Amino acid sequence: MVPPDEDPPSRRAPWTSGPEPAGGKGWLALDDDELLFRIERLPAAHAEDDALMEVVRSARHFFVRQEAAKKIRDHRRLRAHSGDRHIGQILVRAMTRREDAAYLESLVRESRHIEVKKAAEAQLALLAEGEGD
């Protein structure tokens, strides 16, 4: 137990100034700033979903993983990471088709992260509004 005068240790990954400690390959060999720069420079019609998914699956800082998730073109690839609240929020916001409604409803029921539940509820409301048009 942590003494009352000390902060509990953070579970967040620290920002890194260098590549992955295990000697990452490809994009993971870049430090966080370089990696973010590469992610941000991707055009809308990129073919880098595989590299971006490596970043999403990595132990990098949540912000880096979240920015990579935002750039994934095939949002279905993120479904395996819906349990990660940072990635789950990105996944939910990308779901705009009626076929996604069942998955969004399951996230509302099953997600343990309130941020993901709320984002899924908001997307479902947007889908419902679109049906009235």
Describe the structure.
- The chain is an all-alpha fold and 133 residues long.
- The chain folds into 2 domains: 23-73; 80-133, no CATH class.
- It is built from 6 helices and no strands.
- The chain has helices at residues 32-40, 49-57, 62-71, 85-94, 101-110, 114-131.
- Helix 2 (49-57) runs antiparallel to helix 3 (62-71).
- The mean pLDDT is 80.
Write the layout of secondary structure elements.
Layout: H1 32-40, H2 49-57, H3 62-71, H4 85-94, H5 101-110, H6 114-131
Helix pairs in contact: 1-3, 2-3, 3-4, 4-6, 5-6
Brief summary:
The chain is mainly alpha-helical. It has helices at residues 32-40, 49-57, 62-71, 85-94, 101-110, 114-131.
Structural class by SSE content = mainly alpha
Strand percent estimate:
under 5%
Total domains: 2
Question: In sequence order, what are the helices and strands, one letter per element?
Answer: HHHHHH
Major β-sheet profile: none
Rounded to the nearest angstrom, the radius of gyration is 17 Å
Unreliable spans = none
Number of H/I helices = 6
Number of strands: 0
Shape: globular
Average pLDDT figure: 80
Helix content: 40-55%
The end-to-end span amounts to: 56 Å
What keywords describe this structure?
0% strand; globular; 133 residues; mainly alpha
